[in-house]
Amino acid sequence: MVSIDVTLDMENHRIRGKASTELPIGKPVLIYVGGVELDRVTLAGQTINPTIEEDSFKVVVSGRNRLLRIQFHRDFPPLSPGIGAKKDHTMANNFIDTKGVVLLDGWCPTLEELARYELKAAVPADFKAISEADAVKVEYREKTSIYIFEFPHPRTGISLVAGPYQVSLESHKGIEIAAYFFPEDKELAQKYIDKSGHYLDLYEGLLGPFPFKRFAIVENRVPTGYGLPTYTLLGQEVAKLPFIVDTSLGHEILHSWFGNSVYVDLKEGNWSEGLTTYLADYLYEKQKGQGSDYRHRLLVDYQSYVHEDRAMSLAQFRFRTNRASKAVGYGKGAMLFHMLKQEIGEDAFNKAMERFVVDYRFKIAGWSELEAVFSDTSKKDLSVFFDQWLGRKDVPILTISKGNITYPGSGLQSLKVIIHQGTESPYSLLVPLVLETTSGEVRRNVRVKTEKESVDIKIKGQPLSVTLDPDYDLMRKLDPSEFSPVLSRLLGSEHKFFVLPSQCPEIYGQFAVFLRSLGFEEKNIDSLTDLDLNKGSLLILGDPAPRLERLTGEMPGPDSGVIITVRENPINPKGVVALVKASSSKELGLILRKLTHYGRYSTLRFKDGKLVEKNTAGTQNGIRLALQTEIMGIAASDLSPVYRIINEVSEKRVIYVGERHDRFSHHMAQLRVIQGLDRQDRRLAVGMEMFQRPFQDVLDRYLDGQIDEKTFLKESEYLKRWRYDYHLYRPIVEYCKEHGIPILALNLPAEISKKVAREGLESLSDKELEQVPVELDWSNTVYKTRLRQIFKEHPEGAIKNFDDFYQAQVLWDETMAQSVHDYLENNPDRQMVVLAGNGHIAFGDGIPSRTCRRGKYDQAIIIANATCNSIEQDMADFFLFPPMIQPPFSAKLGVILNDEDNRVVLKKVMHNSIAQKSGLKSGDLLLSFDGEPVKDISDLKLALFFKKEGDTARIKIKRIKRFARDKVLELTVGPFKPLKMSFHHTRKGSRK
């Protein structure tokens, strides 16, 4: 126990006191005296004259009398006005003045090791005093108050603060909360007390009981922001700022756990500031949904201020001395704990924190103790993690490149990306990756240990892009696309210059002095060279000379106040160019001390010293690699990404997205539209031309999971009724199935449409007519003319008569329009995305006008794969130009088939095909495929659909012999490989 008894002499700015303690026998004890003058020192009752070296002296007790007594005094300078317009006081850790007392370090003798202290202080009667204390006792005298502070815990030092305070007290769940404010600021007290209770609850929930019985908020005449055991010392001007209760107050209260009860072993570096920043400043932003933005700001500050000559490791960080050291100790330190949580998981992280504050309460702990607790709690060896993040001065430099991409068909496919590290030796990192696909996002955390790490990711759908660390979970160097042109880049630049204007330079005189204090070099316009611009950043004051306008562009000045704009330096991408315009020197003077606090912004506007506008230039989030060219569309004369088109049409009740049926890229574009709307939480239904109305029940049962895919294809008769490979449409159906989006079968039964096309509408029976809409519109002569041209260009086939063809087309359109209308009328909360051939929706003539006739719906038309010379006015609202995409693998035999008398005949076996290599011949009858009978071509299509690349099949055939007995053979066919030929129908057969 060390007893300290002091008296404050306000008029003479002096403290006098006595200190006494009993020392251990035979052990050298170091006494720190700081700046005090020793009046008398006695050991065991004998006066000694200790030798003071580096503000300390050493004592060794050998006898039974172990008492050391020290009489001391110290003089302090009075407070002096600062340079600010409000005559704020300059920064001082220690002062004694009639306006107040702050004694934080070196004002009384202390032990170099942890010790318990008992403080007794005599202060003027009109002053209230505060020190580290769980309880405060006061004895009031005529002109003096005697304060006795009880603090029953060992500590690293002792402080004393006093002033003409008005004290407010409240009890919060057994903890006394006190507010010591100057009389002119007494109205602030309640707000600070209430918010302190909030923070105590928050951190007791996270870390366990508050370490003390008391907490106080204390004003200081000078601008401080300190956290000490049982109280925080806030500068008077700081305390008035409205945001301090929501930011700095919580930070200082959290120091009650970290730094003020678990003490920091500075020999290993200061872990407390990084951890407190993470669980206070960062946590508050995270609670507002802005956690990634805050982490990004930490990386921006680090990259702005920490250059090679200013770099230090976290193990070297002791205290904040400048913005570079803050970016390391506070910013990089906070990121270390964020990455640690990612490494071991939130549950283990929280348990380790609770254990750490219990195990080391009122003890000294360093990084090694932290590592031991986290390693033991998480059951992980964290030595590599802590070694690299504590010992290295650099940060990871990451890039990403594309490896092999196999376009996904059905099922999971593999995508390879390569992560590169650009530092001399690689880090071991848990790297977040986000892969955007047409089936949604795929998120992975990938362990990267080498300079070049290949990563294989299993995906569904079409890969669009991959982004490395999009939420800034890693401490790393930012890519240029992530590094905003902000004020901190100017202030932190290694080489920074400013140029005064030729007109009205007097406005910027005081500001120029301020800039020089920040390390700016003044240049005149004639001495400024491109070499200067190429190696640093430039600040232009006032209207730029014509030579510099190429860097700034035109920017109007403010009528009153100050405007600051920061932009990229086109000559030096690492630097920035900033422009400051002010209406008067007074306006500039009002913002001098504030300016360095706005480093995150690209544009600032002040009026009467108050911030009235702020903005940060947007950046890309994460290091992004495009895996496929973005699908672009055209609206009016502007090319737009597909997401913008989706936003344009998102409110429409019906959205038509056209296609060429055999283009897989068109179907992927359709899927992109569906996904984009779905992600906006639109209540969608998808209408598809490819499915016919009588099979709606089958479609519904599949989407509900009542039947499997094979049953669905068989019972819907898709493979009989729609000639295009189902692999082309499968991603759309599967996405809707997975996301609960209804699919509507729009189309007329094929039997009816074919019959009308060959024989006309009058050929339909009464039963067939029941499936045809009652209302049919034949009045669109323009549409009829367009269809006539298409008919002429159509190869000669079974349809001989244009009028019949036209009737079938209108019947088809009207049926699909009726299907859309019926569904929307019965489901008024739904939107409909209609997928149909371009010809059915172009100019609104096919389905859209007929749907609108029924319901007056707000509609939009999107047409895919329109080339520039095929676009016509009013053809669509938007045009998409999706790049060609290799379709999914589809197993092919390489044969042309015919259905003859309920038999499947190999009409022709293609040369060098899988069928020929497997022994199949033209004229063979197919009997079975993998043991399943083949009764028609759709049976074979169904069997082939589920074959993957490299599979084989057993096919039973009957070989017809003209002059011998027919043979039944069973052959192994395969392995199936991709074929250059694509599936299509012949007039009388089908190629598979």
Give a structural overview:
- Strand 45 and strand 46 form a beta hairpin.
- The chain contains 28 helices and 51 strands.
- It folds into six domains: 1-164, tricorn interacting facor f3 domain (Immunoglobulin-like), CATH 2.60.40; 262-391, Neutral Protease Domain 2 (Neutral Protease, domain 2), CATH 1.10.390.10; 398-478, Sandwich (Immunoglobulin-like); 496-615, no CATH class; 632-758 and 791-881, Rossmann fold, CATH 3.40.50.11550; 895-991, Pdz3 Domain (Roll), CATH 2.30.42.
- It is an alpha+beta fold.
- It has an eight-stranded mixed beta sheet with strand order 5-4-7-2-1-11-14-13, with no helix packed on it. Strands 38-37-44-43-39-42-40-41 form an eight-stranded mixed beta sheet, with helices on both faces.
- Mean pLDDT is 89; it is low at 83-91 and 981-991.
In a few lines, what is going on in this structure?
The protein has 6 domains: 1-164, Sandwich (Immunoglobulin-like); 262-391, Neutral Protease, domain 2 (Orthogonal Bundle); 398-478, Aminopeptidase N, middle-beta domain (Immunoglobulin-like, Sandwich), CATH 2.60.40; 496-615, no CATH class; 632-758 and 791-881, Rossmann fold (3-Layer(aba) Sandwich), CATH 3.40.50; 895-991, PDZ domain (Pdz3 Domain, Roll), CATH 2.30.42.10. Helix content is 28%, strand content 29%.
